[in-house]
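Per reviewer request, we include the raw input and output of the structure prediction for the construct analysed in the revised manuscript.
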Amino acid sequence: MSDEHRDQPEDEFRDMLNAFLSGNSDIDPSKLASAAGLPSDPAAVSQLMQQLQNAMQASGDGVSWDAARQKAEEIAGQGSLGITDETRAALDQALHIASMWLDEVTALTDSAVAPRLLTRAEWATATVPVWTQLAEPVAVSISDALTDVLRDQAPEEMAGMIAGASQLMRNLGGTLFAMQLGQIVGQLSREVVSGGDVGIPLLEEGQAALVPQNVAEFGDGLDIPVSEVQLYLAIRELAHARLFRHARWLRLHLISSITEFAKGISIDTSRLEELAESFDPSNPEELRNAMASGALIPPKTEQQEHALARLETTLALIEGWVDVVTAQASSRLPRWNAIAETVRRRRATGGPAESAFGALIGLELRPRRLRDAAALWQAVTDAVGQDQRDELWSHPDVVPTSTDLDDPAAFVARLQAGAPEPDEMDQALDELLREEAAKNDDEQPPAP
């Protein structure tokens, strides 16, 4: 590189970063990996350095999610087992029986898409696109905030260097965020038992999926026959898939609500500035803890609180409906209630990876009003039957609200009161249809 070219501030900054990423600096790369919440073993550090070098070469201005996908697939692949013919046959049978039992308790039909059995690695690959869609608004905010803080905190003699390399810093910050997300998705792949296990639709519309390795681990120590556990989890997953196939508006509504919430998140630059001033590269725990705890995300605004309440209501209604339908469909299983209780406990606590995702984008996926929602759906079922209950998912305007969760008796009373009195046009149309039906009956030949 010519001396004239090196005089450009952004090239000087790029050279400084290249020296660091090539190991020609005093900063230990493993400390950076640890600060980013990633393993600090040599292989992970090498991968991090390679991803950051790739980000430096990227011509685009934004987050490249290849780092997230690669990290997720790497972690998911560790200890990921293939699916044996015996396991496949057992789960295929469980899914077949589950579908027949669900036909008895819900008017929602089975998906035209055949259920899938996924390894952990396949689950990670299939779900990364949705995870990145949900997390991108926050990743952009963090990258921009990091650039702003570095510009504001840089000594005067480095101001030109930082300003000229803003795109580079956004790419580096976005890559660090993407690798954190990949770490979380990879860990989730070792915990989830199905496609709908975390409550949001991570697969394509109507697609049901089980992760056999995790289904087997879920049943360990329950002292319940494996076949019962497989069947119960198959019922839950198929119920979830049927709901999203029937309510075609629901998937887009849910994902749009989450991304809109995430877009409203701003990063606490004052907290970043404090970290930048006090950061000790030899002790990265403070930075890692700040990112992992969500301390960089400021308190939610009033608008965000309202959006979050609506989102939590939708998540609770989905999970509550699935709970009620699954309980009805699995009632033949001797130990169904014990399995259901295990699911409830597991869902209430969530796992480490799910908590990490909540800290990363400021959103917990576990709805707080799940019990209220399940009680409402049960009351509706008892009062008006499963067909009218399921018809409530036909349009977002008729789905129960948070007010209905507060007073399910009033909601049921409105349903039992029936439709409003028809207006004159409705009455005229009804009369015309009756006359047409009577005319057709008169034209039919008499029965022999």
